């Protein structure tokens, strides 16, 4: 397989800097350029704390995606910019691998359609950690037998979107397995708004934000005389990198957009 040429958007972020370290260790991947909010025209190696890549930084995403010879864009930025970059990548024949969360359903549908039109593969994965993908699949399976379920997601306090992309995806998977129904007492009333969390067809999602946390989720099912908890913890961001690498390799053989790493796992 020939070398895969990658652009990284968000190289100074918590995830983007981890992605650069991953690329540095992979002989099959090379860094062609980065998209950042500042440092136009500088080399990645000039930026404190980043690996010694010669790749140039662009602040204009459109110019980067149009001019640079690249196969894949890895986007780890913010919901608004991630959506914009993904669209630009597809329009310029660069395959997006997107970890950025917080896209709306309408944005996802639009990107899926664009990917199909352009016959350019893409991966949008709300969680690249293999353990988290398994946690979501186990939760989907459990929902067949335990239709009453609440999701608790816990993240660091710098996170922009709530609920997390992982919680949204988990709820979508569970929706496939159960009928919508009210959970809890039919006369239940919140005396403090938000006490029961966000509602997805009766299923509740609770979001916790605290310093010290990385990324954690519990899916708790209740049945007659028993509960079942499916739980995953990312305790370091390197947990996401085998998934980013896998998606970067597999997207080369795709001509549609897949939403979730589970479609790429054997
Ligand atoms: N799919 C997954 O497995 C994971 C996804 N995430 C998601 O990845 C995204 C990034 O997360 P973190 O690295 O924790 O955030 P962060 O805040 O540490 O990094 C975001 C970076 O994006 C940069 N940025 C913002 N606007 C930009 C623009 N227009 N062009 C280029 N760069 C821009 C910021 O300067 C910052 O360096 C979030 O949406 C988060 O939810 C985070 C962890 C795992
Ligand atoms: O912002 C984060 O940190 C994370 N975001 C993703 C999400 O929203 O689910 C993945 C993981 O939970 C870490």
UniProtKB/TrEMBL annotation:
GO MF assignments: 4-hydroxy-tetrahydrodipicolinate reductase; NAD binding; NADP binding; oxidoreductase activity, acting on CH or CH2 groups, NAD or NADP as acceptor
Entry binding sites for NAD(+): 10-15, 99-101, 125-128
Source species, domain of life: Bacteria
Boundaries of every Dihydrodipicolinate reductase C-terminal domain copy: 131-265
Localization per Swiss-Prot or TrEMBL: Cytoplasm
Major place of residence: cytoplasm
Enzyme class: oxidoreductase
Protein's pathway: Amino-acid biosynthesis; L-lysine biosynthesis via DAP pathway; (S)-tetrahydrodipicolinate from L-aspartate: step 4/4
This protein's record includes keyword Iron: no
One of the GO BP terms on file: diaminopimelate biosynthetic process
Matching InterPro entries: DapB_C (IPR022663), DapB_N (IPR000846), DapB_N_CS (IPR022664), DHDPR_bac (IPR023940), NAD(P)-bd_dom_sf (IPR036291)
GO cellular component, one term: cytosol
Subunit note: Homotetramer.
Full protein name: 4-hydroxy-tetrahydrodipicolinate reductase
UniProt lineage: Bacteria, Bacillati, Bacillota, Bacilli, Bacillales
Name of encoding gene: dapB
């Amino acid at each position: 397989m020939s070398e895969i040429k990658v652009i990284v958007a968000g190289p100074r972020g918590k995830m983007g800097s981890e992605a650069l370290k991953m690329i540095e260790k992979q002989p099959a991947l090379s860094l062609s350029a980065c998209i950042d909010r500042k440092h136009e025209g500088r080399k990645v190696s000039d930026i404190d704390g980043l690996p010694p890549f010669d790749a140039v930084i662009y602040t204009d995403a459109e110019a980067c995606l149009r001019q640079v010879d690249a196969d894949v864009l890895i986007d780890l930025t913010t919901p608004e910019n991630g959506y914009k970059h993904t669209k630009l990548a597809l329009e310029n024949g660069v395959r997006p691998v997107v970890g950025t969360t917080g896209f709306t359903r309408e944005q996802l549908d639009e990107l899926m359609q664009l990917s199909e039109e352009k016959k350019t593969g893409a991966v949008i994965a709300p969680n690249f950690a293999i353990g988290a993908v398994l946690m979501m699949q186990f939760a989907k399976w459990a929902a067949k037998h335990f239709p009453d379920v609440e999701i608790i997601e816990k993240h660091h306090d710098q996170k922009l979107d709530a609920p997390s992309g992982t919680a949204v995806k988990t709820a979508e998977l569970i929706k496939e397995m159960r009928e919508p129904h009210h959970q809890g007492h039919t006369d239940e009333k919140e005396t403090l708004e938000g006490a029961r969390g966000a509602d997805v067809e009766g299923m509740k999602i609770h979001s916790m934000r605290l310093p010290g946390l990385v990324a954690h989720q519990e899916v708790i099912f209740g049945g007659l005389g028993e509960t079942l908890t499916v739980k995953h913890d990312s305790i370091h961001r390197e947990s996401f990198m085998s998934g980013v690498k896998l998606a970067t390799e597999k997207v080369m053989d795709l001509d549609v957009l897949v939403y979730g790493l589970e479609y790429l796992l054997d």
